[in-house]
Amino acid sequence: MLLQYIDPGTGSMLFSVVIGLMTMLYFVGKAVLIRLKFVFSGGRAVISKNRVPLVIYSEGKRYWNVFKPILEALEHMEIRTVFYTSSEDDPVFLEHFEYIESEFIGQGNKAFTRLNFLEADVCLMTTPGLNVYQLKRSRGVRHYSHILHSVDDATGYRLFGLDYFDSVLLSGDYQKAHIRKLEEQRGIPRKELIVVGCPYLDVLKEKVAMLPKDRHDNFTVLVAPSWGKSGILSRYGSSLLDPLVDTGYSIIVRPHPQSWQSEQEMLKNLEERYTSKNNLEWDHRNENLQSLSRADIMISDFSGVIFDYVFLFDRPFLYVNNDFDARPYDAYDVDEQPWRFRVLPEIGYPLQEHDFNHIGEVL
Hints:
By secondary structure, the protein is of the alpha/beta class. The protein has 2 domains: 48-204, Rossmann fold (3-Layer(aba) Sandwich); 212-362, Rossmann fold (3-Layer(aba) Sandwich), CATH 3.40.50. The protein has 13 helices and 13 strands. The strands form 2 sheets. Strands 3-2-1-4-5-6-7 form a 7-stranded parallel β-sheet, covered by helices on one side. Strand 12, helix 12 and strand 13 form a beta-alpha-beta unit. The longest helix has 33 residues, at 8-40.
């Protein structure tokens, strides 16, 4: 028997085609059914029982800090909301909301299939790439809104990350200009841009206040990179970690959550390399607060965790991003340097690859 291999990219494309056809047939059939009901009801309006005013989708429990204050505000205002999540153990299920209906809808393509047939007035999510990959704009949704979940550039997403949303909830005014530039360059409709702040920082600030005040004895360095080819773990790996371990300092390595999905082989090799090193530990936890609070200094690249560390703990950090490849990101289509890279030299210390061999002195 001949087995055919389908690579992930082709599989994703085929899934998109199939789902697109299914969605079209679903809504065409629904339109015909509504028209027939309209005729047989004597011309009275027919309201879909499946439509809800507001749907919020969360990719998983790591986004709970973003959505928690939003859901609490909606509950306070008595606004009926459906909260879909891709985590079976999402903290939302521990809440006792009266006006928020919560449901686990599976992960990956299973969740996207459910969302592609969604019927709602408004759908809010942190997930970028709407209408780019598997997650499509449903014909049954009138308005799609994206909320940024980092104090970072709005162009930090992969290409076309925000293009097909109707509105974007921003952390600050500094994120507006580049979105407008991309809209103009790409000839896409102007989105509603509304500054709402960064809700997850409010939640984290409350949690930081409850952390134990006791500090550790050994000087602790946190390595907290972004993911992808430009991330420091992927680009430098052991050439950075080896000299760090040799300092004798306590080293915490906390990869980006997406790395555990997209860079498993690289992380597995690094973990095996340092199995016998007692002063290096890996942080697999969902939340980063404990590692951030323990660290006396942090080494990162272009990750948004830099701003969490600075705003919540006001401690120093080093960054390595000279070789950042902007081609996969929206920032590549903007001539101006991203805000993130303009502000980092003002608040952090640049680290060069040739500094790795004497990293102890630099620290």
